[in-house]
């Protein structure tokens, strides 16, 4: 195992710790492969009853993939990133179908790839410190790691709102939107994790879980559902501006900062995901879209502006929603030249 992933056995518990705290445990390709290796080994090990995923440090489980590496690789063809995505999405699918309880502790920041290794688990725990998001449109990308599957199944149009604006979820929001199952105060996590060693998962979680905190998004459904039900990004923006709701106006301003191309592709991906019959179908679609995004100007430019130069001034191409036609959007959903993602 690489130093950035620590695994251990504690009674009947297989423990996986993402250990890259200085980078908020952002996933590298090697980390993805190491987590997969541990899960494969424990799947057939009768001595392992449950798997627990946590993140090292005090700030979060995982802030996502190593997007600076994506930036550098995309500039030279993106082959390394495509390989990373193939293995990452296969890991996401494995977690969703894992034959044993998979407990993900989403304490602190859990974004992007961090959602992929947690929100598909069978037991998903948030704390008062949890901040959950799929922020890909901020960097000229689209929600992935099964994010379109999850977002498309959130109540009403909450998932459309979250996917397009890249807004963060509070612990209560994550529970409301189907990204988490239980709320446990962070102070109780050590006892909960210790208790899993010799007691059934459901019993231990029930012992420490508390009532779900308030979900701010629940009180905003009236304007979110009305505005984000539109069939085009242009109409969504028009409804937000016309609503007269300050929060809606702010959402419109946030959309104006995102890549016009990726907003339109994200909306199309979310609408298509509603008709999907499985997570694997959404992951396959996300692989197509992500491979196309790697060859698009806006991904490199978005990461440059947010992470590399940090000037927060991306120059999108095209620069307006009107400049993105239906043919451009449709091309993102075509099978990549190297072939589709294959999930067993």
UniProtKB/TrEMBL annotation:
<dbReference type="InterPro" id="IPR032259">
    <property type="entry name" value="HIBYL-CoA-H"/>
</dbReference>
<dbReference type="Pfam" id="PF16113">
    <property type="entry name" value="ECH_2"/>
</dbReference>
<protein>
    <recommendedName>
        <fullName>3-hydroxyisobutyryl-CoA hydrolase</fullName>
        <ecNumber>3.1.2.4</ecNumber>
    </recommendedName>
</protein>
<dbReference type="InterPro" id="IPR029045">
    <property type="entry name" value="ClpP/crotonase-like_dom_sf"/>
</dbReference>
<keyword id="KW-0378">Hydrolase</keyword>
<feature type="domain" description="Enoyl-CoA hydratase/isomerase">
    <location>
        <begin position="13"/>
        <end position="333"/>
    </location>
</feature>
<dbReference type="InterPro" id="IPR045004">
    <property type="entry name" value="ECH_dom"/>
</dbReference>
């Amino acid at each position: 195992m690489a130093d950035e992933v620590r695994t251990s056995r504690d009674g009947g518990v297989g423990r996986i710790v993402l250990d890259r705290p200085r980078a908020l445990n952002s996933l590298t390709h090697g980390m993805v492969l190491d987590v997969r290796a541990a899960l494969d080994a424990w799947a057939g090990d009768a001595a392992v009853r449950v798997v627990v995923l946590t993140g090292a440090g005090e700030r979060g489980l995982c802030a996502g993939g190593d997007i600076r590496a994506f930036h550098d690789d995309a500039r030279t063809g993106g082959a390394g990133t495509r390989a990373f995505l193939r293995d990452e999405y296969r890991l996401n699918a494995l977690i969703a179908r894992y034959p044993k309880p998979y407990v993900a502790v989403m304490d602190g920041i859990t974004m992007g790839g961090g959602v992929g290794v947690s929100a598909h688990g069978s037991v998903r725990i948030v704390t008062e410190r949890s901040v959950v998001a799929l922020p890909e449109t901020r960097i000229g990308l689209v929600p992935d790691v099964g994010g379109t599957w999850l977002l498309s199944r959130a109540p009403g149009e909450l998932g459309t709102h979250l996917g397009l604006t890249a807004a963060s979820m509070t612990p209560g929001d994550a529970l409301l939107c189907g990204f988490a199952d239980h709320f446990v105060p962070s102070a109780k996590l050590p006892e909960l994790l210790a208790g899993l060693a010799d007691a059934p998962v459901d019993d231990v979680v029930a012992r420490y879980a508390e009532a779900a905190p308030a979900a701010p998004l629940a009180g905003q459904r009236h304007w979110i559902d009305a505005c984000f039900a539109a069939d085009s990004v242009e109409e969504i923006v028009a409804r937000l501006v016309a609503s007269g709701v300050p929060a809606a106006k702010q959402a419109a301003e946030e959309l104006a900062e995102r890549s016009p191309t990726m907003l339109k592709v994200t909306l199309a991906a979310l609408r298509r995901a509603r008709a999907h019959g499985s997570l694997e179908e959404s992951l396959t679609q996300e692989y197509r879209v992500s491979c196309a995004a790697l060859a698009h100007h806006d991904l490199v430019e978005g990461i440059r502006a947010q992470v590399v130069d940090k000037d927060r001034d991306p120059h999108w191409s095209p620069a307006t929603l009107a400049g993105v036609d239906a043919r451009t959007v449709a091309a993102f959903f075509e099978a990549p030249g190297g072939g589709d993602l294959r999930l067993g």
